[in-house]
Amino acid sequence: MRGVAGEVTDLLRHLIRNRCVNDGTPASGEERRSADLLEAYLEGPGLALQRYEPLPGRVSLVARIEGSDPTAPSLALMGHTDVVPASYERWRHDPFGGELIDGEVWGRGAVDMLNTTASMAVAFRRLARSGFRPRGALLYLAVADEEALGTHGARWLVENEPDAALADNVVTEFGGFRVPLPSASGPKYPIMVAEKGTYWCTLRVRGTPGHASMPLRADNAIVKAAEVVRRLASYWPETTLHDTWRRFVASMDLPAGVAGVLLDPAQVRALCEADEGLGRMVHACTHTTFAPTVLHGGVKTNVIPDTADLQVDVRTLPGQTGSDARAMMAEALGDLWNSVEIVSDAESAATASPVGTPLWDALQRATRALVPGATGVPFMIVGATDARFFRRAGSTAYGFGLLSERISFAEFRAMFHGDDERVDVESLRLSEELWEAVARDFLG
Which is the catalytic residue, given 31, 146, 173, 386? Predict the structure, then answer.
């Protein structure tokens, strides 16, 4: 395969094969493998490269094309190099094989977000080798540890190496899929201008130990924990139509009936309950969510467990805090709340960037040039990205990309941290051309 698409495809396949799996422990990730690859790929005239390694193996790479005007705004293209674990037995192809099959690259990270990391690297290298001289500095960041809160990657860079890593404007993951709603004025692609906050906590459920041969009416912590899980999973907090959601609906140019549904809390809930695909996205965008994810309990088969620890991933809406999340959990658990203790928690508030900035306008122009008639619309990503560290440091940060229509929205949504992750070559081409166009437009 030749040309830009072939170059991005080749780099992506190598990144997938590097198996930079982040399981959340400090010793995992080994992102130095992909930092080595990207450093060797990018080396050349017209740019500066610097590596940062806060822990052994946890390497982030920063590349820079210096601007001609120190007062001009700078731009950073940022991807991460770590990926989440994959269950081999559930995949149709090797999750770390990086295979090219029928025009699609398969592998863990293909959409989250090694496709973007690779396409940004190719755009950056092409710009440097073309002699591109931006007014403001252009940065490329390939950071570690995004999949475990960014502690040893973007967060570390912002806190410890701000002169090297910070930029006035940042683009990272992820938007650029066609919104599956009926717009009257051409295709709409979400630009992530905001993201939900996180409140990760561990709940300790207490019981009373005893002999497992007499389970009747035993005070079993695991049984209680099962009911805690059930109540959290069935809990529906209040529907919240925040500012970003309202801007999104207004920008979509929807039929009045559809817009009315999306702006009516009661109808939003009905949509979430009835629509398996779109409903999940709408629910996550308009509600605080509670996902029980890890449960540990018991010490021996014949002992009634006296404790069980349950990890819960809570995603909060703009303006909410950990106190709000705890109050909602208390409401969900009712009489069981007194049997639960929060033994650890980590809070990160929701963040947002303004719409209508020069970077926003550059993204719009580049999108229209590549997909005639298309428009970017403001949206809130429901997961956490490294954009939040840059927003808190004063940067305008968006999540974007550009995908073809080969992979449906439902498939695309399911692949994040899911099975059979893959991306088509046409999407890789579109994304690379997007980054190059945005850089030339914004900094040229």
Answer: 146
